[in-house]
Amino acid sequence: MASGLFVLMTSDEETDLPAKRASANAALIRRMAGGDRDALAELYDNLSRPLYATARHILNDAAEAQDVVHDVFLTLWENAASFDSGRGAAFSWAVTLTRNRSIDRLRTRSNRARLLGNSIPDDFGYGSDTADIGGGERAELGDRAVAVRSALAELPAEQQRALELAFFSGLTQKEIAERLSEPIGTIKARIRRGLIKLRDTLAGRL
Amino acid sequence: MIDERQEELASLHALDLLEGSERDQFLAEMAGSPELRQRVSQLRAAATSLAHVAPEAVPPASLKARVLASAAARESGAATAEVIRFPSWAPWLIAACLAVAVVWAERQYGASRAAYAALSEQHRVAELALEQTRSQLDDAKRLITESSRQVAELSTRLKDEGDLAHFKIATLASMLGNSPAAVAVAVWDPARAQGVLAVSKLPALASEKDYQLWVIDKQYPSPVSAGVFVVDPVSGEAHIVFRADKPVGTIAKFAVSLERKGGSPSPEGPIVLVSE
């Protein structure tokens, strides 16, 4: 499973992380491959906050987010041998696992809600707060988080919203279009323009 | 040269938004284009950076301990999946070894005949044992079938007789990935408008959470609360007598969800148990 993910990631993703941090995380995973649990503890310290924040934002449930993060770190631990730093960044691997598992749970939950004749709420908790980086919050965030939030804030609001829904909601293209009351072609174009601009902006800042 | 259509598909693929034939066609196109693969990779990196957009949330300290404890209970995949790399001359070495083994086997052939005869005898004995086991298995299957039939008959008889016929009895199965063994049985007595719920192997909850029982009656647009409960932290068991918050007629389903302390007016948290 993990090796399959790496097929989709090339060393170009390393440019998406400060080289030093990416290299340190890769070294930790290599140590984990040798059964070093101290390395797992260190990797947890490096990655757990963004992974937990991602899972919690997608699921809007602290207990389920903890379960996801727990499972992701165990997957990293059990599949450390398949990690190849030349083919992908540890951060991207971990985020992809976290997002996919959270969305799987989200979809399972909405299926259960349908069982009960209960629809999923319209508002998953995505507000303008994700683009709001006030002074106090900025001080608590790492440089990279500030850079990503700033880059996102530079996009037109409709592109921000399309990207946030695409990444965090687990909705399909069609569902995003329905949620935003726009034609699906418009949504595709917003995602394309937004993601390309985000890539270009981050490339210049990280 | 990547055109606008390809760039759009690459963006959607980086966010795992392509489905069905559209996805298959794009994967085929990508397989033949290193430039397109590189573009997808760049866009996927930008997409995963969105993890930093999620509102800050700090995992509880206990989670790290839980992760490390689980890891300690499992071996690192690396330790069990060490890559074995053979040198290029290994096939020749293996072939040579096989040739030597064949010569040695020929020389041992005579001496092995007696051993072969003994093994044949053992094989016959094993076959007899297997046949006997199969027979026992068939007997066991017949017994299970007969028992099931008797249970069905008894259930039918009970439904035909006495008050049990009016009872709604349901088994609630686990929807929890991490606690698949969790199970519950609900019995509803419409005459008294009350029921009994017996729960087993549900995980204990944090202090700010409660399990909440719901009954689904088609006359209401949303589930009706039947109260909250907690389970024994060691056994995961609970036995409660419950009543619905509204008068209910025919109960179609029972469900248990995870809610905030004290419960919610309608289900908000994940469903952990649901009846068929």
What's the quick description here?
By secondary structure, chain A is mostly helical.
For the record, the count of structural domains of chain A works out to 2
β-strand amount of chain A: under 5%
Q: What is the CATH-assigned architecture of the largest domain in chain A? A: Orthogonal Bundle
Find the CATH topology of the largest domain in chain B: Immunoglobulin-like
Termini gap of chain A: 29 Å
User: Looking at CATH, which topology of the largest domain in chain A would you report?
Assistant: Rna Polymerase Sigma Factor, Chain: A
CATH class of the largest domain in chain B: Mainly Beta
Quaternary class: heterodimer
Strand proportion of chain B, as a percent range, falls in 15-25%
Order of helices and strands of chain A: HHHHHHHHHH
* Proportion of residues in helical segments of chain B: 40-55%
Q: What average pLDDT do the residues of chain A reach? A: 77
The shape of chain A is globular
Total number of strands of chain B: 8
Produce the secondary structure layout:
The complex is a heterodimer of chains A (206) and B (276).
Chain A: H1 2-7, H2 19-33, H3 37-59, H4 62-78, H5 90-115, H6 135-140, H7 143-153, H8 157-168, H9 173-180, H10 184-205
Chain B: H1 4-14, H2 20-31, H3 34-48, H4 61-73, H5 77-80, H6 90-160, E1 168-174, E2 183-189, E3 194-200, E4 209-217, E5 224-229, E6 238-242, E7 251-260, E8 271-275
Antiparallel strand pairs in B: 1-2, 1-8, 2-3, 3-6, 4-5, 4-7, 7-8
Explain what the structure shows.
- The complex is a heterodimer of chains A (206) and B (276).
- Chain A has two domains: 10-120, Orthogonal Bundle (Rna Polymerase Sigma Factor, Chain: A), CATH 1.10.1740; 123-206, Arc Repressor Mutant, subunit A, CATH 1.10.10.10.
- Chain A has helices spanning 2-7, 19-33, 37-59, 62-78, 90-115, 135-140, 143-153, 157-168, 173-180, 184-205.
- Residues 1-17 and 117-141 of chain A have low confidence and may be disordered.
- In chain A, helix 7 (143-153) packs across helix 10 and helix 9 crosses helix 10 (184-205).
- With 206 residues, chain A is mostly helical.
- Chain B has 276 residues and is α+β, with helices and mostly antiparallel strands.
- Chain B is 46% helix and 20% strand.
- Chain B is built from six helices and eight strands, in the order ααααααββββββββ.
- Chain B has an eight-stranded antiparallel β-sheet with strand order 5-4-7-8-1-2-3-6, with no helix packed on it.
- In chain B, strand 1 (168-174) and strand 2 form a beta hairpin.
- The radius of gyration of chain B is 31 Å and the shape is flat.
- Mean pLDDT of chain B is 81; it is low at 77-84.
- Chains A and B meet through helix 3, helix 4, helix 5, helix 7 and helix 8 of A and helix 1, helix 3, helix 4, helix 5 and strand 4 of B.
